[in-house]
Amino acid sequence: MSSSTATTLTPDLGAPRARLTAGDLGGVDAADLIAVIDSVAARASALDRGDADLRQDISALAGLGLFDVDRTPVAVAATIIEAVATESLAVAFGAWAQRMTAAYLRHAADRSDAAERTYRAVADGSNPGVTGMAAAQRQAVGLGKVPITATPVDGGFRIDGPIAWASNVYADSTIVLAANTEDGRSLVLTFEASAPGVEIRNAPELLALNATASTMIGLDGVFVPDEQVLGEDLLDFLSGVRPQFLLLQAAFCSGVAARSVTDAVGRLEGLGAFYADEHSALAVRHEHMHSELHRLAASPGDAALADLLLLRLDGAEIAPAATRLEAILCGGMGYAHGAPANRRMREAAFLPVQSPSQSQLRWELERLGIVA
After folding, report:
1. Where do the DSSP E strands lie in 114-228?
2. Which CATH number applies to 129-233?
3. How far is CA 96 from CA 7, 77, 129, 250, 278, in A?
4. In this predicted model, what pLDDT tens digit does every residue of 128-184 receive, in sequence order?
5. What is the CATH number of domain 237-367?
6. Distance spanning both ends of the chain, measured CA to CA
7. Which among 164, 217, 244, 302 has the fewest CB atoms less than 10 Å away?
C-alpha cells in the first residue's frame, strides 16, 4: 500500500466515495482503495453479464486488508463495502460474504488451531469464503430449524443436508455453516468445498448478481474433524458476530442507494421535476440511514438489536426505491438491460429477500415491540 495523503473524490461518483478520506479508513490508504473501486467500475457491466470473475476483486480487496478482522474494524469495513457498492453490488455482496466467513473463523480462532489456519487463508483472499448461515440466523430467532444434521463419528462429525443458498461457491471455497445434532446441540463447523460428499449444484440464472457464484450445495456424509468445530452453542456464537453481519449488509444497501440517489439529481428537470419531491424524500431517508450506519458501526458491540434491525430494514426499502426511481428518470434507457441504472435496479431487487428478509426483519422487530 502506498503512503499517500488523504484523497477526496468528486461528489458525482456517489456519496460514500465522496467521503473517502484517510480518517475514515484507518490503515487503508484512500488512493489504493480508489484504484480498486475504479477497477470494479470498469468491470461492472462485464460482471453483470457474467463475463468477468469476481474473485479478482476479492483478491484486490484482500490486499487492502478488508477481510483481516484484526486489522480492519467493522467501521472501516462498512465504509469500504458501502463505497464498492456504488459501482457494483455484486462485488460488495461477495466482499460481505468473504468478510463474514473470516469473521466467523476469527471468532473461533483463539480456541482452534484449524480455525486460525483457515481464517488466514480466507483473510488473505487465498480461499473464497462461503457463509452458509442463513438458516442458522433463522433458527436463532425461532423461525425453523437448520436442515443440516451433524452425526458424531470417530474423530468428528458426519454432516448431511442441503444449503439452500450460498455465495462465493467455488471448488476451492471454505464453507462455514451450522448443523444440529440428535441430542439437541447446534454446532458451527467449517470445511472445504472440495471435501468428499460436497455437491456444488448448478447455479440458477438470476435476475442479477450472477457473478457472486450463488447456488445450492448438497452435503452427503461430509466428514468434519473435531478440530474444525468452531462452536457448540449457536446462539452464543452468533451473538458475537450478528451486529457485524447486519451492519455490513446495510453498508452495501446504502452504497447502491447512494449511487442512484446521486445520479438521479441531474434528471430532475423537465418531466423529471414531477419526481423531485419523491427524490428529496429518498435522499433524506438515505442520509439518515448512512449516518446511522456509521454511528452504529463505530461501536458494534454497543448497538441495540432494534437499531440494527431497523437499519437493515431501511436498506431493504431505500435501495430498491432509489434504484427504481433512477430507472424511471432515465426513461427508455432505464429499461435497457445493459444500462447502469437498470443493473442497479435488478441488483437491488434482491435486497428485500436476502436473509434476513424484509419479512423476517419486520417479524423480529414486532417481537421487540416495534412496528416498522
Report:
1. 129-132, 149-153, 156-166, 174-180, 186-192, 198-200, 215-225
2. 2.40.110.10
3. 24, 9, 10, 10, 30
4. 999 999 999 999 999 999 999 999 999 999 999 999 989 999 999 999 999 999 999
5. 1.20.140.10
6. 43
7. 302
